[in-house]
TrEMBL record:
<dbReference type="GO" id="GO:0010997">
    <property type="term" value="F:anaphase-promoting complex binding"/>
</dbReference>
<dbReference type="InterPro" id="IPR019775">
    <property type="entry name" value="WD40_repeat_CS"/>
</dbReference>
<feature type="repeat" description="WD">
    <location>
        <begin position="430"/>
        <end position="463"/>
    </location>
</feature>
<dbReference type="InterPro" id="IPR001680">
    <property type="entry name" value="WD40_rpt"/>
</dbReference>
<keyword id="KW-0131">Cell cycle</keyword>
<keyword id="KW-0677">Repeat</keyword>
<dbReference type="Pfam" id="PF24807">
    <property type="entry name" value="WD40_CDC20-Fz"/>
</dbReference>
<protein>
    <recommendedName>
        <fullName>Fizzy-related protein homolog</fullName>
    </recommendedName>
</protein>
<dbReference type="GO" id="GO:0005680">
    <property type="term" value="C:anaphase-promoting complex"/>
</dbReference>
<comment type="pathway">
    <text>Protein modification; protein ubiquitination.</text>
</comment>
<keyword id="KW-0853">WD repeat</keyword>
<keyword id="KW-0132">Cell division</keyword>
<dbReference type="GO" id="GO:0031145">
    <property type="term" value="P:anaphase-promoting complex-dependent catabolic process"/>
</dbReference>
<feature type="repeat" description="WD">
    <location>
        <begin position="300"/>
        <end position="332"/>
    </location>
</feature>
<dbReference type="GO" id="GO:1990757">
    <property type="term" value="F:ubiquitin ligase activator activity"/>
</dbReference>
<dbReference type="InterPro" id="IPR033010">
    <property type="entry name" value="Cdc20/Fizzy"/>
</dbReference>
<feature type="repeat" description="WD">
    <location>
        <begin position="217"/>
        <end position="258"/>
    </location>
</feature>
Amino acid sequence: MDLDYERRLLRQINHQNVPEGHLSKSGYAACSPVTVKSGDRFIPTRAGSNWSINFHYANENCWSPNQNQRAKDASTDTGKDAVAYAALLRNELLGAGIETVPDPHTDDRRHTILMQDTHSLFRYTIHTKRVPSDSEISPYSLSPLSNKSHKLLRSPRKPARKISKIPFKVLDAPELQDDFYLNLVDWSAGNLLSVGLGACVYLWSACTSQVTRLCDLSVDGDSVTSVCWNERGSLVAVGTHKGFVQIWDAAGGRKLTSLEGHSARVGALAWNGEQLSSGSRDRVILQRDVRTPPPMERRLQGHRQEVCGLKWSPDHQHLASGGNDNKLLVWNSSSLLPVQQYSDHLAAVKAIAWSPHQHGLLASGGGTADRCLRFWNTLTGQALQSTDTGSQVCNLAWSKHANELVSTHGYSQNQILVWKYPSLTQVAKLTGHSYRVLYLAVSPDGEAIVTGAGDETLRFWNVFSKTRCTKESKSVLNLFTRIR
């Protein structure tokens, strides 16, 4: 028996308020936030217009990896000890009979422990001595702990999940706009990152780090306002400030077509197979099949202000759109009117994400005046959960492998949060950007994300793991199971 470990746990009764780790506020000692005006439409001026064709690695005056790892390990060990200490006290004071250390990140841990406590609370029992077996403690042991507590201390511990609070790569992205209503970063299935910088679109290969310029709209006096890859990663759609939507062949580096129809900038794009949906400042959503010349067009009108968010559901049956009118609308593939409308947000809705794990589950985030994450059951039209994040929600993305999602934020904390669903507990908080984190894309393997901000940097983070989540319940009472 490790008596030192027992004494260390028991001494925590007078030290329950453990100080946070050094990285709780910021992973960068030299990255201080920049004070900017509030409001989703504020665009700061830029000094100079010269920028090179290549991305550059940005130099960061940050903690060394060893310092970050030591602080993180200390915080993780403290959390483990706190959970073990709580279970040990329940064994000794309430006779809970806990034999294994609960996982501190398990959603139902607290409920399980409370259920165990209620069995022995306010009950009188007579303890009779028995001859100890090989698995029980010796009657001559000097330890004051019970047999259950000894088993608890000997139980193997599940290794804690570690999320690095520093990016594994930082790229310089000159002239990356600080505009809430634009979508200038996307990651393809072929592991190519497309970035809109000023009037140009650049492609960066995550495999070779090679950079190529796909297009330059300055010859037409235009600029890039949105980029979006198709599902196969062969075509990239480019929305422009003048209202055009261009389709480019990434491998050949040539423009296939230029679509008209919008009278203002196109800030949101979403592919659905061979169909492309575009949302504009003119308040209209256009759906077009790019295979037909001229393309067949569906015109969706439901928003009263600029359309700033578009996402198709994983089953390709429903389109979710968010607007500056604080509305979240859901459209099907046949009707010209929205089939559902959600009006709970108090600010612009740009952040939209469909869950790949639960059919019909939609997440959305509001702007500066709202700051809330909200979840919707689109099968029944019901609002499920909401939480106030404390700052403007700019983007949302679900993990492909676990029931988790990541959100990026603007005013006033400029942070990246990883959430566990449905408990909505924060798994990690990442900082480093000094401007609003307006852009987000997920890698093809689902493990890494890239974030972009008005500080003109792209930062790459490892936030998701490939470990599958607990299998979804197959009960007929589960509203999220698909009925065939």
